[in-house]
Amino acid sequence: MTTGHKIARNLLPLSGTVREVMARLNEGVGGVVLFTDNDGVLRGVATDGDIRRAILNGCNLDTPAADFMIRKFTSGHADADPTQNLALLSARIRHLPILDSAGRPVDLLTWADLWRMPLVQPSLGGNESKYVNDCLATGWISSQGPYIEKFQNAFAAYMGGGRAFCTSSGTTALHLALEALGIGAGDEVIVPDFTFGATANVVLHANATPIFVDVDPITWTLDPKAMEAAITSRTKAVIPVHLYGHPCDMDPIMALAREHGLKVIEDCAEALGAEYKGRKVGLIGDVGCFSFFANKVITTGEGGMVLTNSSELAATMAMLRDHGMAPGRRYWHLAAGYNYRMTNLQAAVGLAQLERIDVFLDRRAELVKRYNGYLAGFAGLQLPTQAPWARNIYWLYSLAVCPEHLGMNRDQLAARLQERGIETRPVFHPLHDQPAYRTGIAHPCPVTADIAARGLSLPTGNEMTGAEVDRVCDALTSIMRTQQVYRAQPA
Ligand SMILES: Cc1ncc(COP(=O)(O)O)c(C=O)c1O
To answer: Most buried in the list 4, 219, 451, 472, measured by CB within 10 Å?
Structure first.
């Protein structure tokens, strides 16, 4: 038997009226209503388009289903092979009721079952398998091996300088930076309220206090004015997060940091390749921290990198990453360090990924152009931007929904897109609201609250095609158009 959709909300009795169908569809019931008789047998169906045509043909809101439903419909069989049922879906047949042997609907397949657009997919078609096979063949699978050095060197070369050290994740990279900078108990660290939790988690791991401040409404990154207002005699560091691929406005942040003697740890987890006034982010502050989780621009599965211009910090981070052992003396611990190392296998993947970063970033720029071109002009959507001084690498194409224009909120829009097979992702919640961060100190963050409620990321992948962008946009525009049709109906 086919499993999948819960169809209870799609069902109406034959007495169901145009009004009831429209109400169901308006609640986002999956594009079709199924009419069943007293025995539960499917007798007819109606979609948005059928209702529109029924009204044009003179039906009113109280007309019963028998007068407007479509009696000739294609259905699948519960006992059939699922692929046989799926094969019945087409551009014309976008909803397929699945019936049991008595003709009662037990499931509903839609074209979303046929086509799925993931939010992100890693692109692993370069030298990844060749290099990984090399690790396997040579036995260098742990954290020693030639690819570690190669990846670190290639990374520093791509960044235009600095010393780079692979880590086991972006989170451990951030923690390593805080520890190496001597941040600890009693210290305050300013972090944006709008970021992934790892940025604040590491501050707590270092026994310091996160101070949550607001972000800029255009770039969604740390607002220097909010940072300034949060500085106290205990402030020791700031973590500007280049969020969703957009760089922070680093000049005023660095000026404040210099004035108050603060360390600056750039959280570049989402922003490899992003530029501030022509400089790549990551070497502007004291340490830059990167993530290579599978949804990032380049990936090693799990993994990260720290980058710094300071040879002293570089040495401390390398030592702490390696159990705190002295580099020249085996099993001699200078500090109670960590095992935050990356494996040679991961570095092999990372090197192959880095070889193609320019292709990945160019691809993203094309996608963004296409998204922007298609979606510009819809009052219900606030599209992502790029400050004049910035190179935004658009880690995820993230927009903000304007419910007053769209007639539905972010989560409703996401649910409609999901029905059409399009995966989206809400943006991060304000950190200070969350149980984990109650010991932090929060400054007013109205911009974060607003974006967090309205922000939505659309599919953005290194291999996403223009046609796929169009398909996401087609779905979006058709949902928005449908919403306007509903809004035009009398209540
Ligand atoms: C802004 C930000 N900081 C830190 C991290 C942590 O990186 P990782 O998942 O590699 O530990 C992430 C990752 O998802 C992130 O988005």
So the answer is: 472
